[in-house]
Design goal:
Two copies of one chain form a homodimer. Helices cover about 80% and strands about 0% of the residues of chain A. Chain A contains nine helices and no strands. The radius of gyration of chain A is 19 Å and the shape is globular. Chain A binds a DNA duplex through helix 1 and helix 3.
Chain lengths: ~200, ~200
DNA sequence: CCAAATTGCGTTAGTCACTAACAAATGCGA
DNA sequence: TCGCATTTGTTAGTGACTAACGCAATTTGG
């Protein structure tokens, strides 16, 4: 809203863009924050003030608010698993329409580097907790612990979907991989008695 | 087996012990690797040669071989979810009998520090992959993708169990928390149609 | 039991991620 | 337009981590 916040967002996108270019060209470990700052026309401490760490330059985005709104909108009409599945897919579609290429680049980098994978863990843990809290709030009959577990399972499915999406270079949209992961999840638990 | 390997293990336990003492006293971030090395009577590069990073001094253990053997032993008689559940619980029991206190200290530290939580992610990803491969091998009818997903779900349940275990200071054994997480997982998927 | 090849350790020196402190500049409210 | 708050760049410093090298210990083959 204010000019300051707009500038901040603009600078962050600028730095992220410059960093992605450099990382893809030379590799994450071979690019110093100093080089990124120089390429983006800012000073190193400014990069840290915005992102906190080198890894978070890649991992940063602002999709979460839309995601939570989308899921909350589905909770009135659907059961927990279905609500979270449909809400997440709707959110994925919007992100896909806007920034598909950007998300692909970031995800590919993340899966190719252990340091980035590691730095992503606290963010995923946060997402798990937020999803769990949202479910607990909208489905009181579910119970806090089951809500927490459901959040974790959904995030695990999302991570696997992203992995498969990257593995085939994003040829099919991410939502399809996620839908498959969810179908697999249901069938695996439901057919448990049938096998062996 | 050889004297060298024995010495290596002994030194690693020594360094880990000294490090845990220091971390619990002053906090993970306030203890330098130099101080740990001095307390354990080795040089800093030796610490890195053994553990690779400061975080892995806390995260290192050698429980995985036992875990995989235990799960593989269950796959002939049980369905996938049940086999992995019982195998993991059996393995948990053995670890519990030997090193309950040590595991508790390490887990408490890990959950209290973002850097440790982050460094744990690649290890969990590796565990997911190994579990998935094991399931894929023993249950060909399951399919590679469902095996992979199952591994991820189990690890997510394990992480939640550890979290609850630490939250109540290890009063009830870890296996009980894990059993509850698994029961919740089944009930959440099975009762999906009933709620709202 | 002893040389020779292998392997691991300590010392040194260096790179780079990250932070604190301060001074200058820029957007904000009156 | 004028003080006020926030942001930025500069500087200096800490500490995680690695490469290189000489030395000591272990293993292997005789």
């Amino acid at each position: 809203m204010t000019l300051r916040q707009d500038k901040r967002r603009w600078t962050m996108r600028e730095v992220q863009g410059a960093a992605l270019d450099l990382f893809e060209a030379r590799g994450f470990d071979a690019v110093s924050v100093e080089a990124i700052a120089a390429a983006a026309g800012v000073s190193p401490p400014t990069v840290y003030r915005h992102f906190g760490s080198k890894e978070r330059i890649v991992l940063w985005d602002d999709y979460d608010p839309g995601l939570f709104a989308e899921i909350a909108a589905q909770t009135r009409a659907l059961a927990p698993l279905a609500a979270i599945e449909h809400g997440l897919i709707a959110s994925l579609d919007r992100v896909y329409a806007d920034d598909a290429r950007l998300v692909l680049r970031r995800a590919r980098l993340m899966l190719s580097n252990p340091a980035l994978l590691a730095a992503n863990a606290p963010l995923m843990a946060e997402l798990c907790a937020a999803l769990g809290a949202l479910l607990d709030q909208h489905y009181p009959r579910l119970g806090t612990e089951r809500a927490e577990l459901l959040g974790a399972v959904v995030v695990a499915a999302l991570e696997i979907a992203i992995k498969h999406w990257i593995a085939e270079e994003g040829r099919r949209p991410l939502r399809e991989h996620f839908r498959e992961a969810f179908a697999d999840l249901r069938s695996v638990v439901l057919t448990e008695g049938v096998l062996t």
